[in-house]
Design a protein that fits this description.
The protein is an alpha+beta fold and 475 residues long. Helices cover 35% and strands 21% of the residues.
Length: 475
């Protein structure tokens, strides 16, 4: 049953949704691109804006420096006493906007668009990943506090500024501030809903291994008219090597790559089959028609439960406008692997390096720049916090939240390993939100219902007996 305080907060969300959207758009205007040193000041500006707002809401908030971009840390005592303590994590940094020419509007000049069916979306970099998403729980805090209530839980907020560029400062910061950040459970809103009308809770994440490889041959770029033929071409060498990472059935050929990959449990497979997922429609949304992954595994299984090897970028030689007939001295590629089960990211990356070196021809050498990695993670589906969150989502959306597997969120592993906490992942992104792509968007329905959902989740979690939950988990 909805309490009077919860009803008042939900009414506040309804009455103030335009102001909530204005605050999101103001944040989206800040080009907080963490990977580009030119935007260092923008990242600091974004961090300060969120810390200032949380302070205005009654949080003890600060911008905490790191070796890279700063963290935002904020605390609210809630009702005090032994109320459950929640750690809310999000990230204020965003991906670069390239290629700029493919955007319908300026990537940092957010626009509200109306689709053919009358629904609306906000378009701009960070709309969904992760500014629109984490703003849903900050707006929920605001609605509860400004409607005359207090937060039903003790709350700590941690906003990172390097998630899109490797999170190099995250684990040292967690270790250095362990006592301050430790809570009963972490909450992350950087995942997706099942569809526009059905919420989801992510209970499994694939791990990652990633980095860059460079192939070198001659000591300088060569004129193809003089050296074409006898000179080794690194572009050709790299393309051939990367192409050999998969066989004709889409299976990854790296030695030991599938170590730790278990077949899908039959009971889980049966549950997935009941979801009614249409793999053909999933591909049609991006104008594709033929599944390209491992044969014998359908689209849903490939997305949720199978490991992958992907080439994320390749370059070498002359790549600007016009034409220049050179044989480059170097060729480069960025590659990434999505991992499942017990796959070890370090072993996968070492296997990739061995594969490259084993296929190098004479006069070529390879170098590597690893970007780090994380193991896959599977979360308990019967914990008290997850059950409370699912019941709250059911109340808001009128249908049961689906439990699903997601992409890769390394911070979940870091929080577990360093802070000893489990995570509940509730997000409202959709497959067509163009995350990391031009014209990134966030449905206004997702933003609005997301805020209302967090109001309900906070109230539901305020009733969870965390001491009993920990005791049961220990048993």
């Amino acid at each position: 049953m909805t309490s009077p305080h919860e009803t008042a907060a939900l009414d506040h969300v309804d009455a103030q949704i335009d102001a909530s959207l204005d605050r999101l758009i103001a944040l989206m205007r800040i080009p907080s691109i963490s990977t580009d040193p030119a935007h260092k000041d923008d990242c600091l500006r974004a961090a300060r804006s969120q810390a200032d707002e949380l302070a205005d809401l009654g949080f003890a908030a600060r911008v905490a420096p790191t070796q890279g971009h700063p963290m935002v840390v904020a605390h609210h005592a809630g009702p005090g006493g032994d109320a459950p303590h929640l750690l809310f994590y999000g990230h204020y940094d965003v991906q670069p906007a390239d290629p700029i020419e493919l955007w319908r509007h300026g990537p940092f000049d957010p626009v509200i668009e109306t689709r053919d069916d009358g629904s609306k979306q906000v378009v701009g970099r960070g709309a969904c990943d992760d500014k629109g998403q984490f703003r849903t729980f900050i707006e929920a805090f605001r609605a509860i506090l400004e409607s005359g209530g207090t937060l039903p839980c003790r709350v700590t907020v941690l906003l990172e500024g390097e998630e899109e560029s490797g999170s190099e400062s995250l684990e040292p910061f967690l270790r250095d501030n362990m006592q301050e950040l430790k809570a009963d459970v972490a909450m992350i809103c950087d995942t997706g809903a099942w569809d526009a009308d059905t919420p989801g809770i992510t209970t499994g994440l694939r791990g990652t291994a990633a980095g860059q490889v460079t192939i070198r041959a001659a000591d300088r770029d060569l004129h193809s008219g003089l050296y074409g033929g006898p000179a080794r071409n690194p572009n050709e060498v790299l393309a051939r090597i990367l192409g050999s990472m998969k066989d004709e059935d889409g299976r990854v050929t790296l030695d030991g790559f599938y170590d730790g990959v278990a077949p899908i449990d039959s009971e889980l497979r049966a549950a997935w089959d009941k979801l009614g997922f249409d793999g053909d429609a999933f591909l049609r949304e991006v104008e594709l028609s033929v599944p390209a992954g491992e044969k014998g595994h359908d689209v849903l299984e490939q997305s949720w439960a199978r490991p992958t090897a992907e080439i994320n970028g390749m370059w070498g030689g002359y790549i600007s406008e016009g034409f220049k007939t050179v044989i480059p001295s170097e060729a480069h590629a960025k590659v990434s692997f999505r991992l499942v089960g017990d796959q070890d990211p370090d072993k996968v990356w070492d296997s990739f390096k061995r594969h490259v070196r084993a296929h190098l021809p004479a006069d070529c050498e390879a170098s590597f720049k690893p970007r780090g990695g994380s193991r896959a993670i599977s979360l308990a589906t019967d914990s008290a916090p997850l059950r409370a969150a699912r019941a709250a989502l059911d109340a808001e959306w009128g249908k049961s939240a689906l439990l699903a597997s997601g992409g890769s969120i390394p911070v979940v592993n870091s929080i577990k390993a360093i802070l000893g906490m489990d995570t509940v992942m509730v997000g409202f992104a959709l497959n067509d939100d163009n995350i990391h792509s031009p014209n990134e968007k966030y449905d206004l329905k997702a933003f609005y219902k997301g805020i209302r959902s967090w109001v309900r989740i906070l109230n539901a979690l305020g009733q969870v007996d965390t001491e009993r939950t920990e005791a049961v988990a220990a048993e």
